[in-house]
Predict the structure.
Amino acid sequence: MEELLEILRDIDDSVDYEKETALIDDHILDSFGIITLIGEIEETFDIEVDAAEMTPENFNSAQAMWKMIQRLQEN
Amino acid sequence: MAIHTNLYLLVFLPLVMLAYQLVPRKMRWGVLLAASYALYISFSSFLVLLLMATSFFTWKIALWMDEIGAQCALKQKECTDRKQKSEVKKDFQKKRVKVLRLGVLVLLGILFYVNYYNFVAENVNIFLGVLGAKLPMARVMFPMGISFYTLEAVGYMADVYWERYPAEKHLGKVALFLSFFPQIMEGPIARFPDTADALFSGEPIKMENISEGYLRIIWGLSKKMIVSDRLTLLTNQIFNNHKEYHGSFIIMAAIAYTIQLYMEFSGSIDIVIGSGKMFGVTIPENFNQPFSAQSAAEFWRRWHMSLGNWFKNYLFYPMTVSPLVKNWSKKARKKYGKYWSMVGTSAMALFPVWVATGVWHGAGWKYLFYGMYYFVILLLGVALEPLKEKRYQKLGIDPNAPWLKTLRILKTWVIIFTGELFFNAKTLTIGFEMFFSIFGNFHISSIWKYWPYDLLSEGDVCAIIGGSIIVWIIGFLKEHGWDAREKILHASTPARWSVFLACAFALLLFGAYGTGYQPVDLIYAGF
């Protein structure tokens, strides 16, 4: 989880990712932030994020992203 | 029968509401579907058959994908380990993707044929002419709303493929989702979970929904009839006879057209959302104070939001995570570093989105240019972002300073006005002629000297400016957390009714009617 938080802080360090639950809905993380994020998490966690995963529910909070990463690592 | 006409608002809508309320709850969706097809026939007569066929096809394709999914689940039960299960899933996904491709290709094929075949044939014929060959031109009838319902259908099929929700078993529910009468002309482009359940549930008509719907409709009509319909006279005159006007008029026409388009399109969407509300259906919003945007990217998150969201969900993100883009991105990160990899990936994902956004509006080089214009601006925004941050730090400027925000808003306005100038010009060449005339032939005083009083009197100008200011103030207050509509709806009954009556009187008093005014068609209904 800490690695994920570091990636997110690298994109924008002004957000409290441990508390924020509407990163996509409130446009805190925009489409270009998502592009950077996908590249980073795929490399760091050795996973493949496909189009089916690209939903606000998976990216609205660091917790939701972490759950998605763990699920993709299990598959 | 367009949704801003008296026939729709005073006869059709009340009659549908009455019929809806009178029939048993289980049959109410049938009333909405029949009303939707009746309204559609009033525009596109027998082309309603195409809408029906699209609905049936979409429903069947989604069910087919679900069926394959169910077969996959059965097969997976026989597997002993995870690896085997994963292999089975992969095999079945290949079958499902073939079905999805079939669905998407058929629907987009029809859309392409109706909208773009003649444009492509015309341009191909320029080259074929050298060889003495020629593609035949097609006599195509335009099915109303095809650009909107096709995107809804493709989005539904893609969501079912991605297993975001199961395929709907009831054909009527899918058909009503795609054809609901307020939305069919100008959208917004909804996703199945946004409206389908509410449309199908047959909720009784409630007084609070009528109040909310009425207020929304009257607000939308006011934007259209007090401001937009008046501006149409001015913008038509200048855009149709641009050579007769100085650059100052061209700038004014670009600004006027942007305001006209916003008032007209957002006003129509207000009528759509208000109509839906009457039946207890919450249709997604399409605008969110777009002129408060501080960048072109933010503008597109606030303007025609349903189209932007559609392209983001079904084109931008799938492109971003496609093997082609991902492989390139990985190699570029190693070779050129994070920054260039991000810029390159953004370019690869943004390009198809903006080609599609441009041509979605119609067949023509100007629409393609309009898409490319925003592609370049958005890509520059991405590429320059880190430099901007460094410069702010170096100069000790607070990026959130109010003066800087105002400057950014003004800069965004210039980008928007320029884009709309090309968007509304008759052709791309005329668009460039108009654009360059701003620099070569600019006399601010000519606006007063040559003002077309026969088209817009001082009274009309006051109505336009007054109306625009009111819309701007209400938007500004909403942006800062004070929602006028909510306040009115939660006010005491006498206060609420006073506002309702005042709105109706204002519309009757200041709306553009009578000699010199023609009923103005809905702009986006033509796309």
The mean pLDDT of chain B is 91. The two ends of chain B are 17 Å apart (CA to CA). The interface with chain A takes residues 86, 162-164, 297, 301, 312-313, 316-318, 320-322, 326, 329-330, 333, 338, 341-342, 345-346, 349, 382, 385 of chain B (CB under 8 Å).
